[in-house]
Design brief:
Protein name: Adenosine kinase
EC number: 2.7.1.20
Number of domains: 1
Number of helices: 9
Order of helices and strands: EEEHEHEEEEHEHEHHEEEHHH
Radius of gyration: 20 Å
Number of strands: 13
Keywords: Kinase, Transferase
Oligomer: single chain
GO molecular function: adenosine kinase activity
Domain Carbohydrate kinase PfkB: 38-296
Largest sheet: 9 strands, mixed
Structural class: alpha/beta
Length: 318
């Protein structure tokens, strides 16, 4: 079935690999508290999987499930060939995904034990060069600046602003990098802010302003609250978005990116903010039922049926 033509959306953010390993024991049994000053441990991990990830990659994946037109703007290393082929096979324009010579793609290595404790190592790799990726010619009616290298996030935000392209500022995992002054600078460029409940409190603390006050200077602010749904602040109103009951709760990794993909797709259709948030909520609920950020394969027709059942909304026909 053909999809309706939607406006392209510029997706600035990371493209990364996640390597997830499971240690079939407990870290506490192998780490001696009185010896942490000279720590040297090794864990046998019989279970390992490699996932396609990164905020830009995840958002683009979910937008393509909906039939959207994502244009990811990201930097990757020379090892990204399989990832780029996968994106192109899904119909994603990779023309603004820049390969940085002599680097690896950003990679996260996560080892989990049987008590759900995690030891994580992150290599930024090519992501560190994100500011060098010029989006000046990238097509887009809307954009999003998702977690990336800090200088890259600012560079992309300024370029979008200079071109008059409205965009979402998605703080996410980049939160520790932004001071109150940094946040105010970014909010002065963006039209929309998306945060989770915890990030909202940090933003309020660092800026000295309430989310309601921040939202007054934007088109909208969205606070996601997990299984409690989300809150939309727009036009001086606070609107609660009811959650969608997930088929199963398997893995929250990538749920925020799925939410943002739904939000962006709704915007690209010209929907109202409230309806766009409802589609976003559904996309997060679909994602959480599968392991990994890009292993759900729900069709557009299935998404449309779920949207109708959950909120009484209809995706446009071709």
């Amino acid at each position: 079935m053909a999809h309706p033509v939607t406006a392209p959306v510029i997706i600035c953010g990371s493209v990364a690999f996640d390597t997830i390993m499971v240690f079939e024991g407990r870290f506490q049994e192998h780490i001696l508290p009185d010896q942490v000053h000279s720590l040297s441990v090794s864990f046998l991990v019989p279970s390992m999987r490699k996932e396609y990830g990164g905020c830009a990659g995840n958002i683009a994946y979910n937008m393509r499930l909906l039939g959207g037109t994502p244009v990811p703007v990201a930097t990757v290393g020379e090892d990204a060939g399989d990832y780029l082929r996968r994106m192109r096979d899904q119909g994603t324009n990779t023309g603004w995904v820049k390969i940085v010579p002599d680097t690896f793609t950003a990679q996260c290595f996560i080892t989990t034990d049987l008590a759900d404790n995690q030891i994580t190592a992150f290599h930024p790799g090519a992501m560190s060069a994100s500011a060098t990726n010029d989006l000046s010619e990238a097509p887009g009616a809307w954009g999003i600046v998702a977690p990336d290298a800090k200088d890259g996030m600012f560079a992309h935000a300024r370029r979008l602003h200079a071109r008059g392209i409205p965009f979402i500022f998605d703080l996410g995992q980049a939160m520790p990098l932004f001071s109150g002054e940094d946040l105010e600078q970014m909010l002065g460029l963006a039209q929309v802010l998306t945060v989770n409940d915890y990030e909202a409190h940090v933003v309020e603390q660092r800026t000295g302003r309430s989310m309601a006050d921040i939202a007054r200077g934007l088109q909208a602010a969205v606070i996601t609250r997990g299984e409690q749904g989300s809150t939309l602040l727009t036009g001086g109103r606070e609107i609660s978005i009811a959650p969608v009951q997930a088929e199963a709760v398997v893995d929250p990794t990538g749920c925020g990116d799925a939410y943002r993909a739904g939000l962006l797709y709704g915007i690209s259709l010209g929907w109202q903010w409230e309806d766009s948030c409802k589609l976003a909520s559904l996309m997060g609920a679909i994602k959480i039922a599968s392991r990994g950020p890009q292993n759900h394969h729900t069709t557009r027709e299935e998404i449309g049926a779920l949207l109708e059942r959950s909120y009484g909304l209809a995706l446009p026909q071709a």
